[in-house]
Amino acid sequence: MLISVSVYFAWHSPEGAVPSGPPDSPTAVGDETTLETDAPAEPVAAEEPAQVDLDTLWTAIDEESVTAVPAYKEVVQDRALVRIADVSGGWRVGQRIAVPIPQLNETFTPVIDSIQPGPSGTRSYVATLTMVEGRVHRFTITVGPRNTFAHLSTPLGTYELVATGELGWLMPTANMDRHVDHNLPDFAYPGEPPSLEP
String of b and e for 24-53 (b: at least 16 CB within 10 Å)? Predict the structure, then answer.
């Protein structure tokens, strides 16, 4: 009762004075100080800048979570099975995308520099990642109606993606083609069987 009477007199004082300050601030009436509200004022946090959602190129999944894994010519050490996201249709030059590398437990965010249309409805996205020390790493992602390929240069190594449909293998380039003998010639003359000798 005392609070409501004090507030009434503060707003309807004979001099017609109106109290100053915010509504929750103390109001002096005679020798008493009262609050105009029963609830204490909540602290106001500084507004955080809005976070921009990045299109994530793929998500790592467990091999046992699918009935059939995509075929590839070899089992590459440290490979990761990924599910490709259907996001590339809206990509534009200057956009930053999220490229997770599960083997490194890192997600890189390169910026798309160019978009290059190719045959049979394919499209290549060339993106760069500039590191603090100024070194530039290039990401090339080619998306087609059935397949997706990527070559990813990161500060911690180079990776390749080979995907058919929504599933694919993300593999360290250094571990690929280890079964290939680079001492053997990689060509043959017409009508001549390939040589097995170096």
Answer: eeebebeeeebbbeeeeeeeeeeeeeeeee
- Cβ atoms of residues 91 and 115 within 8 Å: yes
φ, ψ for residue 175 (rounded to 5)? -100, 0
CA atoms within 13 A on the CB side of 82: 26
Residue with tokens 């602290």: 43
Helix (H) or strand (E) holding 148: strand 147-154
pTM of the model: 0.63
**CA geometry: angle 104, 144, 81, nearest 5 deg:** 30
Handedness of CA 25, 29, 33, 38 (dihedral sign): negative
Residues 129-138 have pLDDT tens digits of 876 567 889 9
